[in-house]
Each structure stands twice: as structure tokens, then as C-alpha cells.
Design goal:
Four copies of one chain form a homotetramer. By secondary structure, chain A is an alpha+beta fold. Chain A has helices spanning about 5-20, 80-90, 105-110, 135, 145-155, 175-200, 210-220, 225-235, and strands at about 30-35, 40-45, 55-60, 95-100, 130, 160-165, 170-175. In chain A, strand 6 (about 160-165) and strand 7 form a beta hairpin. Chains in contact: A-B, A-C, A-D, B-C, C-D.
């Protein structure tokens, strides 16, 4: 399998993980930049992530146009989120857009800014901007429906990992697919811990910048600890057999077959 | 399949979607107006929506009487909700009544009126009246059990999309079945985002009237974005095979067969 | 099937419903009074309700002793809850004891007394006493482990339908098995609606005494509306085939087989 | 089966129970001290607990080194939690480390200290210290990654049963595997009841020291009441067949075979 084939295989896995972990449902999507053509990216056609297979992937240019001029299948309306972020951020190789319920309140009010409180939330980064489409575009249907809106979102994101989208969801950006998926799975978890902590009174201890940095230094996409979650989530999502480890280093230990494919449960 | 057959087929799908999305359980129901006879509507017999098949549908006149005088099966006690709304609202073609848990608190207190905060909640509309059966009828068992009570509920609903029913649930009304189902699925989600936002402090940003209007303009029952959710929910509810697209316009892309264990295929 | 056989068959169904609806788990139990011997009752042996079959039922006298002197199987430690309530309340024919999570906070503090706010919660009754075992017995392991403690709980329950047990769970009592199960399923739902309503601000509207009375008048164990839920819950719990309708009146409509036996999801 | 074999068999069961009860997911682990070699303990290799089989267990010395010098499989990074506690606490025979969501808020703020409020939470103990790795080690990635950090955590734990780990999770320690699993399952439940009680207003009644002590006196790993939960959880986790009762005392009643669709049998 070529490097590109492997990446697209991982993109299918990513779609399934995000669906099974309740980060996306009918809506939401994940993309990867073309490893050899920085002005191209791959994103599924307009279909719920849970159903995505390798045949559903479309190659786009950063302006959201399919590379294949004969492409007939409907694309995601909000592909401009991905194109906008890839354009503004040469360091970013993968993007997620999702409506994951638990993060929504943090984009609706500035009472409690989203910040990492749990260690697995460190990948969110110390600052999470909130993008309000109305600031520049007034009354809209809140969807990122063109290049200009995607660029405005990317501008708000700046150098951060995640931007909340007021009344809508979030956009996450990372240097690898595994990392953007991990960030997207843990963001709602961090949100839940934070909002519950606000209810207990007292002063909340957030992760320090030093802790966030230490965790960034310690984790790579294929470190044992990171890969364990990717493999676990993929297995629970029913795509364990697709998982590979094309990085150099230890040969992949053969994962045990899961006895139950229990779906991740959403906690309120 | 005739247009009526297709509508009734969709009504079965709607029942199953609402059950699978936890909007209804043992109780709750969804109806459609007869496309050719405005004073008739279709509603299942008294049975949990999860179990409804095409054989369980009964045709009623607006006063809640079965058209077939020999009809022996027990009807839903609260069919008067549907008749009352269809009578008062010639624009409405489908109605849902449900007890969906997460909306109940908003009908119990006026501390935080229900209003759209998330984009998918825009279909709720800017104003959500609360109907209290006790206002006109004093102490009752809270069920809409006759024509007069159904008419009073419809009067409270007015031109809105949804009325909360104090201590009971809600009634939703829309110009199409797909839209009333979508509204009913997103109402609890909007409720959850709103009550959590109230706990975070600060000032909540609600959708503006302009945003609500923009979203109404942009969505039709068979727009790609709307239909994607209908298809997704139907598939998760186990009735994906019943889904059709009888509207004019683009030929329906054949949806990928949904299996939880579908494996991604390598891109060639 | 004799009347007793039918009752015990329903007792098995009741166990399964309570387990599937997350009212009980490893702990919790349901009993029925012997229809012909008021000083006897039936309760399963010490086993999780989810696993109960007809062979697991034991007949007890009100003091918690097995009628069969050769009975070797371990009984539930807290059978004294059942015996105590049956003894004090000749009108009660069925009792549930459970730890259902969502009601626990209401037994821990007097900040917000448990009262019906949603119509399906009316069966809780207008007054829900809280029993604290420490009041009479000082420091204990909080279990109702003897006749005296069971009698003290029953005394606290008085003529109410439900008593919360501080730091432990609740005990529910009704004139029929279907009604005590219904009460036990809706009690947590009422609890959730009430605690969320407290977070929204404003003044909460509780069900009035007149509404509670109207609902009691309108419902019998085999009314169409009540039986629909019993059948639905039994079917979802996998024991739909055991359900019968031995009351006089309409012949039982043949229930549609459920396409999915989805387990009730617990909402937080 | 030797005593050691039985213990390791139980360790597999424990892994599966903790996964099925949502205490652990991709992360988290459980260990047992070697019954004959107090300076050795058993812990799985780096794999999600849901997938653990008997072949995945590794024997370590308290400093976290595999006994088998040829051991190639990656160990859990945080095995030092287990070694540290086993070293400091000769009375402890089993340790759990987990990130269970619901306890996280209590480690983030001192507004509401974690204390038992429900009877099944008594095993938490009256005092639950909060360990903050930053106190001694400054900015880290929050993982217990060496002997020194494991010892510092054990020092904070002192003679308590559980220590919360700020921004991370908890560590639980008990004299038996069944007890540490029970404690770990009920800790999140106690957390949920406590935080909801804080929202209801009024003064919360915590378990008294006398009640905690009474419950400790009354429960042994194989008491009927304790073993019922172990068996139930194991069965729900799909490993019911692995459960044995090697303790002296009553012969184990043959548990009913658990099938979700088990039908009640008519009583003869």
C-alpha cells in the first residue's frame, strides 16, 4: 500500500471513529491534505461519516472544487472549512468539523472559556478562540458555505488547534490525522469535566502552559500511548482490521479481537 | 407507488426515526394530513411508534373519528392534538407529539424560555409558546383527550412551529413530514445546549431572527443537507431500505448500504 | 394458566422490565403479595433481576422467612422492605425497592423535595417522604436487614406511594404489579425533569393535587394507555412473548414484533 | 486451578468489568499483588482492558520492571502507580487506575470534596485525598511515569482507599480484587449523586463515619451481596463463564445462565 493509500485508508478509519465516538453524526466531517500536493485535500462526499468507505472520498483543491471535473456526487456544503484552514496553515495536515453536543455551550457564552482541565484535553491547546460568523457576515444560515467564510474562520483560528463556532460546533486542526481525531474525541470530554467542575464551587485548576507543552513534547502519532487509543477506537468502530502501522519502529503487536463492539456511549 | 403510498411509507419511517432518536418511546406519535383531503389525516393505531408498520395506520377526520366506521383498533387517546392543529393551520401537513425528556424543564418554569441557540435548532422558530391545559380546563389528567382541548392547544400554538405542553411534552407542526421530524429531533438537542449554557455564566447568544429566516430560506425537505439526515436516521432506525426520493430534481444518488461493520475499501 | 401462575409470570416480566429500564441493576427487587394469602408474598432469590426466571421465585411470610422450610437458596437481604410494607398496607399488592441513580440526590438534601412535575410522574403521589434509617437505628450499613427496620420504613411511607431512602434508593408500593413498575420507571424521569428545571430559574409549576387525582381516576392497570407501556417495556426487555392480558375486556391486539431490542438508555 | 491461576483469571474478569462499566476505556488498568511474592505484581501489557486475556498479563517487580528479562511487549507507562502503592501499603492486594469521567471535576476544584453520600459509595472511605503531581514535580505531562512519582502518589494516598489525581483520574487500592473493582465502579456513581445533590440546594447528608465502618464490617469479598454484583458485572461484560468461587463456605449456587433474551418459565 502506498503512503497515499495508507493515508486514505486512515481517513476512512477516522470517519468511523468520529461517528462511533459520537463526535459526528449525520453531520460533521474529517479531511487530510494531500501528502504530495499541499493545495489539494481529501474529503468524503456528502454522506454520514458512519457510512464512508474508500470509494466515497473526493480530492479537492483548496477552493473547494473537485479535482475531477466530471465529479457528479454532491460534496459537503462546508468543505470550505477544510480548504480555508489548509490554506492558512501550512503546518496542518488534517481537519475535523463537528457539532459534538457537549462543546456547544462554550460557544454560546463567554462565561466560562474553554480551556484544558484534564490531561487528555491538553491537545486542545491553551487558547480556544470562538468564531462568530455574524461578526463579518451578519445574518446567515451559520454554515461555512464559501471560500470567504472559510478564510474568516481560519483567520480566527490563527495558530490555535481548535476554534469553537458559535451556535454551530467546532473546527479542529492538527499536523496528523491521528492527532486531529484524538483532539476531537477528547474535546467533548474536557468540556464535560469543565462544566461539571463549575458547578462544584471553588476555584478550578486548569492545565498550565508548561503542562500543555510537556504533553505536546511527549506525544507523537505513533507513540505507544497514542496508538493504543487509535487502535481501540477503530476496533470499537468495527474497522479494527483496517488499522496498520506504517511508521518505522516496533512491529505492530497483533491486537486482540474485541469481544464486544459496544458503541461509545454519550454522557451528559 | 402513488404519492399517497409514498407519504404513508414515509410516515412509517418517521415513526421509527422518532423512536430510535429517543424523541418518542411508549408514548408519542406523528401524523400527516391527507394530501388530497385536507380534512383527513393519518395516524397509527395505539401502539409504540417503534413497532409501527404500514398496516397500523388509520385515517381520521379532523375531529378524531376513524374514517372507516368499522375500525376496531384502539386509536391514540391524544389524536385530538393532530386534528386540532391540522384544523387551525392549513399550512401544516405533519404533526408530532412527544414527551422527549430534555424539553420538559422548559415547560415547567419561565426562568429560561426555549429559543434556538444552535443552528440545527433554528427550525424551532423564534418563539415557542408554552401551553398549560389548566388555564382553560382546570384540573385534568393533562392529556389532550377531546376536540376542545386540541383546539385550545392549536390556538396557543398560533403560527409557531412548536408549543411546549406544561408538565407533558411538546407538539410540533410543519409543512412536511421530513421537516417536522427534523424539528422534533433537534428540539431536545437545542434544549440541552441551552440549559448547559445557562450554567456557564455570562450572556447567552441566541440565534437572531435574521439567522432563523436565512436558515428557513435555505432548507427544503429534499435539499442535500436535509435529506442526508433523514436517510441517516432512517438507516440507524433499521428502515433505510424504505427510504425513497420521489421529489423532482436530481436523481437520488444510491446511498451506500449501511452496515455497522462496513469496511473501508482501498482507493484505486 | 391459573391466576397465581399469571401473577408470577408477570413478576418475572416485571423483573426484566425494571432491569432493562435501568431502575435496578445488580441490586433492587420487586415482589407481589399472594393473591389468596395476604400474609405471604413472592420475591426472587438473591440474583440480579435481569436473570430472573420463574424458577427463581420464593414464597415468604411477612417476617421474611421462606414458606418452604427446606429452602436453601440465599434470599435478598432486604426482603424486609417488602414484608414491612405488605404488613402495614393491606391495600398494597406489589412493592419495588431500587437504587435508581437519578432519585438519589433527592434523598440526600431537603433543598428540593421530590414532587410530580410531569404527568407520567403523577403516580408518585403528592407527597414523597424521605426515610433516614439513622433516625431510629443510628449508625448502620443502611440496609433494611430485619423486621424492625422494615416496619420503620413502612411507618415512614405511611399512605404514600413512594418513600425515598436516604443515601440508598427508594421503596414503591402499589395496588398492582403493573402500577408499581410504572411508578418505578417514571420516578427517575420525574427526578431528572425536576432537577433540570431547578437550574433554569423561575418558579416551578408542580402537578396540582387535582391533576394527580384526575390521573389516578383515569388509569387502571389494563387501560389501553397503561398496558401499552407495559407491553412496550416487556418487548424491549426481551420478554414480550410472556405478556398476557387476563383481564376482562378487549381481546389483546397481537403486538407487532419489535425490529430492534434496543436497551433503554440512561440519561443523565 | 491453583490459587495463583484463579487470581489471574479474576484479573482478566476485572479488566473486562471495568471496561464494560465505563470505568476504563482505552486507558486505565488494574493489578494484583502476587499472593506469594509481595514484591511482585501482575498487570496487563499496554492494551485496552476490554481486550485483555490471560495471555496479556505481565509479572513486574515493584519498580515496574518485568520479571522476565526477555519480555518484549510494551508495558503500561503508568505501572508505577501500582508499584508505588503496593510498596507503601502492605495491606493492599489490588490497585485500579482509571480516568472515569464523572470523578474528574472533584479533582479540579476544592469546592465540594469527594465524600460518600450513597451507601454503595461507602467503600470510598471518609477521606479522599487529591494528589496534584505539580506540587512536587512542577510542569509534567501529568502521567505517573517513574518510581519517584508513583511513590509520591502513594504517599498522598496514605491510608485512604482512593486518591483523586488532579486533571487525570483516580487510583484505588484495596485488600482484594473484588473490592477494588467494586470501589471503582461505585466511585463515579457516588460522584454523580453528590454533584446533583449540590444543585438541589439545602444541606447534604453524607454517610457518617459510623455508617462507613458498619458497611466495612459487614462486607467481605465473597458475601452474598458483594459476590452478586461481581457475578452480574462479569456476566454483562461477557465473561460470566470465567467466574468461580474458590472461597471456603457455602457451595456456589449455580448462577442462571445469562442471556439477554432469557424467557421466564412458568412456575409449576
Amino acid at each position: 500500500m502506498s503512503a497515499l493509500d495508507n493515508l486514505l485508508n486512515d481517513l476512512v478509519i477516522a470517519n468511523r471513529i468520529l461517528a462511533n465516538e459520537d463526535v459526528v453524526d449525520a453531520y460533521g466531517h474529517v479531511s487530510v491534505r494531500h501528502p504530495d500536493k499541499p493545495d489539494h485535500f481529501f474529503l468524503a462526499r456528502s454522506l454520514a461519516p458512519e457510512f464512508i468507505t474508500g470509494d466515497d472520498l473526493i480530492e479537492f483543491t483548496l477552493d473547494g472544487k473537485p479535482v475531477d471535473k466530471n465529479e457528479k456526487r454532491a460534496p459537503y456544503l462546508e468543505r470550505f472549512i477544510h480548504g480555508g484552514i489548509f490554506e492558512a496553515r501550512p503546518d496542518v495536515m488534517a481537519v475535523v468539523h463537528a457539532h459534538a453536543e457537549d462543546i456547544l455551550p462554550f460557544g454560546l457564552t463567554n462565561g466560562t472559556p474553554m480551556r484544558p482541565v484534564i490531561h487528555s484535553g491538553s491537545f486542545i491547546g491553551s487558547h480556544v478562540p470562538v468564531w462568530d460568523i455574524a461578526d463579518k457576515f451578519g445574518d446567515t444560515n451559520l454554515l461555512v458555505a464559501n471560500v470567504e467564510q472559510g478564510q474568516d474562520l481560519a483567520k480566527c483560528l490563527g495558530s490555535a488547534n481548535i476554534a469553537l463556532m458559535r451556535g454551530h460546533g467546532f473546527a479542529a486542526a492538527a499536523r496528523s490525522l491521528i492527532e486531529v481525531v484524538r483532539m476531537s474525541v477528547y474535546l467533548p470530554r474536557n468540556a464535560r469535566a469543565l462544566w461539571r467542575a463549575t458547578q462544584l464551587g471553588g476555584e478550578i485548576k486548569y492545565l498550565s502552559q508548561g503542562e500543555i507543552d510537556a504533553r505536546n513534547r511527549g506525544y507523537s502519532p505513533y507513540s505507544v500511548e497514542t496508538w493504543r487509543a487509535w487502535h481501540y477506537w477503530a476496533t470499537k468502530a468495527g474497522v479494527g482490521k483496517l488499522v496498520t502501522r506504517p511508521d518505522k519502529g516496533k512491529a505492530a503487536a497483533k491486537p486482540t479481537k474485541p469481544t464486544k463492539k459496544a458503541k461509545g456511549k454519550r454522557r451528559k
